[in-house]
Amino acid sequence: MANAPTAPSTYNEKMLANYVPVYVMLPLGVISNDNVFEDQPKMEKQLKELRAAGVDGVMVDVWWGIVESKGPKQYDWSAYRSLFALVQECGLKLQAIMSFHRCGGNVGDEVTIPLPQWVLDIGETDPDIFYTNRKGNRNKEYLTIGVDNQPLFHGRTAVQLYSDNMKSFRQHMSDFIEAGLIIDIEVGLGPAGELRYPSYTGTQGWVFPGIGEFQCYDKYLEAEFKEAATGAGHPEWGLPDNAGEYNDTPGSTEFFGLNGTYMTEKGKFFLTWYSNKLLNHGDEILDEANRAFLGCKLKLAAKVAGIHWWYKSPSHAAELTSGYYNLKDRDGYRPIARMLSRHYAIFNFTCLEMRDSEQRADAKCGPQELVQQVLSGGWREEVEVAGENALSRYDSNGYNQMLLNSRPNGISREGLPKQIMYGVTYLRLSDELLKDKNFKIFKTFVKKMHTDQDYCADLGMYNHQIGPLERSKPKLVMEDLLEATKPMEPFPWGEETDMKVDDFDGVLANLIRKLFPCSSEIKGSKK
């Protein structure tokens, strides 16, 4: 690694096998809308602070709306090259997200970066290129899966847009790739970069814990469903018209309620089609990513959303509208892991920091059980599993939950543990994180992720050596993917981490809050 610290360190090799690298997500707008790397001195100072804290690397969104903003195939990577060079100088590794979505409208979005204007212009004459709900509202956050293979973009399909972008990235960033700076490419596959439908979006009035809405009413997906239903001998079947609206509860709808449509032959057919479209979408774009980065010493990754609300209700409504067909008797996540395994890709999951006890009881949230199910499914399919927190946390409780999930059965003093996460990314770098008390706790968290070992620049010392990316394995037939829907018991999970972050001040503050709750804190806890 160029310019990485060379000071000698001593390691306990058996403990080093338990080392989980920690990355920090950079601010969303580190590269401005007009493609400028602003405030480099501040970023340099912050990156050096991260490096001194033992952080292994950073993650950054590489926005499609910025680099290809001037016109089709008119790429400008210059600002990102400046940023990458700085990251390299600071001795950090880099995870790059190919962000093919709009920034703005999701929880935590502080800036707005739209899709390229020339793509939005096409949407003016053909608004069906965007995801659409039953009322006809368009979502301009990401192109609908329905146009993946439609040559509507100056002769190119949506998949070709993504593919060309990634090929250009490889061409213009080859020196950074060859130097070992860029260790993985997370391929954006939907809104917020996640493999899902934009079923819950604040720009259309959704608020937590609404069940969300299906997003398949553009003319392209509607036609595909009609063709599929007709092929199955049911030309009379249409898309759901009884699944409620964004902020409904499951029980208030016919589709998700007791003995609802989701349990009928028609409902099962729709949900299988809807979720399979998502699987195929991810598979096709990851195949293009594999071609683009073939032979590079890096890994591919894909992110899946942690839809934890209504997880403990029978219909799992919020997961279903997002495209995760997950029920008590059907695993909606292991097929995704199996698809990723064909591309040697990392399964990146969210909400690692959340505990059931912190959530609203009436929303039947189950973040802990969800994380256990998803991570176990990934490990069973023998893919590398990574993760991140969904919301910024600066307290020991959040960090300890992330530590538990990274090594659910604790450290192994005899080498590699049976279950260990490939890496954890902290969301995100901010002035708040770097405040004295917050940063002190964070540094302890990093040390505990590293099992009290020093920062280790050599990936091979903790079993993370990266060889040249191989060609994806042959495409799996849908029957093989769906075989993975069979539910399996999750792996055992400890009650708490054996590498705890202790925060006496935080414990005291929580105790005071419980004893003397003020109205603003009560209100805040219901968000």
TrEMBL record:
It comes from the Eukaryota. GO terms for biological process: polysaccharide catabolic process. Signal peptide: none annotated. Keywords: Carbohydrate metabolism, Glycosidase, Hydrolase, Polysaccharide degradation. The keyword Hydrolase applies. GO terms for molecular function: beta-amylase activity. This is Beta-amylase. It comes from Gossypium mustelinum. The lineage of its organism: Eukaryota, Viridiplantae, Streptophyta, Embryophyta, Tracheophyta.
